[in-house]
Amino acid sequence: MEFKVGSSRLVLKQGDIVKEETEAIVNAANETLLGGGGVDGAIHRVGGPQILEECKKIGGCRTGNAVITSGGKLRAKYVIHTVGPVFRGGGRGEPELLASCYRRSLEVASVQGIKSLAFPSISTGAYGYPIELASRIALKTVADYLKGHPEIQEARFVLFSSKDLEVFKSAIKDAGLE
Ligand code: ADP
Questions:
Q1: Which of 20, 85, 90, 156 has the fewest CB within 10 Å, making it most exposed?
Q2: DSSP state letter for 141
Q3: Whole-prediction pTM value?
Q4: What is the per-residue pLDDT across 142-174, written as a single tens digit (0 to 9) for each?
């Protein structure tokens, strides 16, 4: 599924993000940047030790922020590591922090001159954010950014399961994309 947002493309697909050929892929990391499960585990496993070495030098990342490393052995040249909020009911700034993850990742990409990047569904695995809520924030934040930033030619959401892809497709309307 593909949408035009300004002059950019917004793509929704099912897949394994470590296989993406976008210039950058986004990692749902934790504040230590020292690796974890889910997307993080897969990225370090496939990308090799170089990514972890660079993460150690950076030294950590606050929730809602994003940092960049090389992509090691991945097809993507870069990994943008962002730290999503742990969901604790939604009244502790989680929506703003989740939006910030997507925005900061895109800002880091713009600064680096990256034209295409792929996002997983941040915070909706181990961090427990209900995907019905998270998908709306994700789509709206990315679409809003693309409107003002044609330098990002393509942003993809790569959803692990067909169910997650369906949830994102349902959220398209709420994000004002249809
Ligand atoms: P968080 O800690 O931010 O919740 P997780 O990695 O636990 O991050 O999960 C985030 C989402 O990424 C979940 O929906 C999970 O199913 C999905 N996911 C896990 N592995 C992959 C992968 N290789 N490619 C794409 N999505 C993945």
A1: 90
A2: H
A3: 0.97
A4: 999 999 999 999 999 999 999 999 999 999 987
Write the residue with the smallest CA distance to atom 15 of ligand 1: 125
What CATH superfamily classification does 2-170 receive? Leucine Aminopeptidase, subunit E, domain 1 (3.40.220.10)
2-5/8-14 β-pairing: antiparallel
**Residue 149 CA to ligand 1 centre (angstroms):** 26
In ligand 1, which atom is closest to the CA atom of 42?
A: 23
Question: Could you tell me which residues come within 8 angstroms of residue 91 by beta carbon, excluding any fewer than 6 positions away?
Answer: none
Q: Quick one: CA dihedral 164, 25, 72, 56, positive or negative?
A: negative
Pocket test for ligand 1, best of 12, 14, 39 (most atoms within 8 A of CB): 39
CA 146 to ligand 1 centroid distance, Å: 23
Q: And the tokens for 158?
A: 């790569």
Which ligand 1 atom is at minimum distance from the Cα of 84?
Answer: 3
The answer, yes or no, to whether residue 52 has pLDDT greater than 90, is yes
By annotation, the residues acting in catalysis are 40
